Amino acid sequence: MRINNQIRVLESEINEDFYRSGGPGGQNVNKVSTAVRLRINIDNSQSIPEKIKRRLKRLAGNQIAVDGTLIIEANRFRTQEKNRNDARSRLAQLIRRASIVPKKRIYTKPSFSSRQKRIDQKKKHGILKKNRKKISLNDNY
After folding, report:
1. CA–CA dist 139, 141 (Å, integer)
2. N or C end of the chain: which has fewer CB within 10 A?
3. Which DSSP letter does residue 135 get?
4. Of the candidates 72, 5, 10, which has an alpha carbon nearest to the alpha carbon of residue 44?
5. What percentage of the chain reaches a pLDDT higher than 90?
């Protein structure tokens, strides 16, 4: 399965199980196994580079099992083939997202004017709150 120019996942690494899907579909739901559970063991995969594996684990979150297996379930459609294509496209999309190297954040200090604006805004807000207080005659005399 081709993901992009550099990454190609071997078919032998992908395992698909078919099971009966819930939801609408009439009598077909009770007879045909249309839902797909796609599994790929990320830890043992030779076709996915190590850096992408680490980012993939972070992106997938709770879709990753304890043993390092990525599990994608697809049951949106009423046919097995559409669900199978959906699961494979979601896997490809996840790997493509993981292959993008995130930009490193450059830490900067706030400028003098931005700090001054913040302090001025805080003073203005404090004056506004101060003016909401009840004025008693005893305080003025």
Report:
1. 6
2. C
3. P
4. 10
5. 23
